[in-house]
Specification:
Layout (H helix, E strand, L loop, with lengths): L9 E8 L2 E7 L9 H8 L9 E6 L6 E7 L4 E2 L3 H15 L3 E6 L2 E8 L3 E5 L28 E4 L3 E6 L8 H9 L9 E9 L2 E8 L3 E3 L3 H13 L6 E6 L2 E8 L2 E6 L2 E8 L1 H6 L1
Parallel strand pairs: 2-3, 4-6, 10-11, 12-14
Antiparallel strand pairs: 1-2, 1-17, 3-4, 4-5, 6-7, 7-8, 8-16, 9-10, 11-12, 12-13, 14-15, 15-16
This protein binds ligand LBFN2T5F.
Length: 278
């Protein structure tokens, strides 16, 4: 999907990782095209294309690519694990490489092909201090002063992880937006509900900041694995079942690795009329 822009139209890819779905624009070799209005317009599942996140690939002078993310409400996201894996798959195929370096606002990330056609990405070291998450004030990130005793973890974006007896019975649509905008999180937060099945397996459901319920959240899966290990509930390696399938998480010396599938659904072109109406 190169040569993706002209004054009249804009081509894009639709990909997903476990049903966490993305519109991806390849803007290498040209000026960035994404604005808040474009993200919101494209993110509309009725009048646009629909996505959980929009990712824009840019030329990089310090990595294979630079990568920026937006949520469907037009807000910026500092990290998106599943979109990073999808873009890595696309770029590794296109460049004929087995690994890729990606510069995001989170820092330099490393992705590589994994067994069985899966893609792994090192999402970096978790941010465990209150100011890094970020939180509004100095509190213990392992026991937030909120109902339900959640854990806060930053993965380049904020996460609030609740441990529950049954993930299936949680009212994610009701509780998610309530905690997303809690004043303890000055930049709002993603909200995860995790049921630890055993020390190597977690069931997790998620409410994403700026998007709502999604079938998977890669950075949320990383944050949940970190929170569970910090609480002494699991080892450093876990299998995680999300609504869209399974992810593997491994909190290593060099960061939190996440491995899972990606899918390229279609390529298409936005009409000039759509772009002009934004
Ligand atoms: N789906 C993502 C996370 C997307 C960003 C999030 N909604 C935010 O605003 O931080 C993932 O796979 O990590």
């Amino acid at each position: 999907m190169r040569d993706s822009s002209s004054s009249e139209s804009l081509t894009f890819m639709k990909m997903h990782g476990l049903g966490n779905d993305f519109v991806i624009l390849d803007s290498r070799g040209r000026d960035a095209v994404v604005t808040e209005a474009l993200a919101r317009g494209l993110g509309d599942r009725h009048r646009g294309v629909g996505f959980d996140q929009l990712a824009e690939i840019r030329s990089s002078d310090s990595a294979d690519i630079d990568l920026d993310f937006w949520n469907s409400d037009g807000s910026r996201a500092g990290a998106c694990g599943n979109a990073t894996r999808c873009v890595a798959q696309y770029m590794m195929d296109q460049l004929g490489q087995d690994s890729l370096t990606i510069r995001t606002t989170r820092g330099l990330l490393h992705a590589e092909r994994a067994e069985g056609g899966l893609v792994a990405v090192n999402m970096g070291h978790p941010q465990l201090g209150w100011a890094e998450v970020p939180l509004a004030r100095d509190v213990d990130t392992l026991h937030l002063p909120l109902a339900g005793d959640p854990v806060a973890v930053g993965m380049g974006n904020p996460h609030c992880v609740f441990f529950v007896d049954s993930a299936e019975s949680v009212d994610v649509a009701g509780l998610g937006p309530r905690f997303e905008k809690d004043p303890l999180f000055p930049e709002a937060t993603n909200v995860e509900f995790a049921e630890v099945r055993n020390e190597g397996e977690i069931r997790m459901r998620v409410w994403e900041r700026g998007t709502g319920i999604t079938l998977a959240c890669g950075s949320g899966a990383c944050a949940t694995a970190v929170a569970a290990h910090r609480r002494g509930l699991t080892g450093r390696t876990v299998r995680m079942e999300v609504d869209g399938g399974w992810l593997m998480l491994d909190w290593r010396e060099d960061g939190v690795w996440m491995t899972g599938p990606t899918a390229h659904v279609f390529d298409a072109t936005l009409s000039r009329a759509f772009l002009e109406a934004l």
